[in-house]
Amino acid sequence: MISRVIGFEKGFQLSNGNHFETYEVMLPKLNKFDVVVKNLATSINPVDTKLRQSGKGTAQPHVLGFDSVGIVTQIGSDVEKLQVGDRIFFAGTTTRYGSYSEQQVVDSRITAKLPSDLSTDSAAALPLTFITAYEMLFEKMNLIPKERENKGTLLIINGAGGVGSVATQLAKWAGLTVITTASRNESKAWSEKMGADHVIDHHKDLTKQLAKLGYTNLPYILILHSTDYYFDEMCDLLEPFGHLGSIVGATKDLNMAKLKDKSGSFDWEYMFSKTDHDFNVASQGEILEFLVELLQEKKIQSTLTKIIPGFSPEIFYQGHQIVESNEMIGKLVIHY
Question: Family assignment (predicted)?
Fold first, then answer.
């Protein structure tokens, strides 16, 4: 089976022009857990722009895209929960061609059915960021994934981005007080809309701003931007036996000794770890099934803020420009 895809041969900077191209690729043979999906919409995440710049990711041509809503058109022999015609959503994997494609093959275990009362575009904005936030809060920081069952305060560095917006909602649902950082009026307003109890300015002294709110240390801190820059200060702010987490790679060695006297934990979260290493893969489908419940109960809202219609190299180049501008609030979805 052949699919039309939007990809590129070598990593490139946007300033060097548009190197996205249209290709036709042969889809792989289905294994027993796989399904073929006709994609309806995808969202663009910061990881897309980083992989485009580095030229890493899937085999050439590099076909990115790690969020999708699509229709199942074919199923493998051991697929149990899905049928042809089902609308599903998923966050994909870096080990296969992504969702910048008209059709793709995906492991059914990392997908979930999408009920008819949930819109395609709103759902396409959520899988990667929700799984990332869920794994960090409930699998890494050991919070209880139940409504109002937790106590304490979470500080989120960069609260208005995709993961920050979802983590704010999840942490509030779970019972935590949430403090986020933002600098522009629009991002502050968005973070408050997502449920933040306090929003402080990451262009100003965070320790002083927290002290004015009555906080000298915190049990949970989540760095979603510039790990190197914030690490030392966040170690100082972490309370004993607290959890400091990050989803952003470091460009230099981090001094973990700063956490020793506090028995502090440092938690990395990388959403693709499970699929990269074939570890507890089905849990991601279960997390998305949980997301469906929260959406239907209106306990969480989509972070969709912008939709671009179309399927062409120009459309994806435009999407990457918007996301890479660092002015994006919420999530951008491309609707095919």
Answer: Belongs to the zinc-containing alcohol dehydrogenase family. Quinone oxidoreductase subfamily.
